[in-house]
Amino acid sequence: MRIALVDGQPAGCLVVGAANPYVTPAAEPELYVQVLVIDQRFAGHRIGQAMLERAMQEATAKGVGRVRVDCYAGDDGRLVKYYESTGFTRTETFTVGDWPGQILERRLGA
Question: What's this model's pTM, rounded to 2 decimal places?
């Protein structure tokens, strides 16, 4: 778990590791963003983007070629669009119960 701080206050949390059990297993080495949570009091501070960049740095250090993440894909798709704005691309969709999800990936160097 990595915690982002802004002026000494917790502003976000990132957890990376193996893919969640409802996700198709990777056919290549990867780092998976299991959790990314940002305190909305710090909206606009680019905390999420900084934490995703941290995940990319960790992937590079481990010698893996991609980072994947999944997110809620319903309603207006705003969360999927957010990840796309940070360099991720859509790969596959999934459903857990009634919850629609999207898996996205970002290749190192992209």
Answer: 0.91
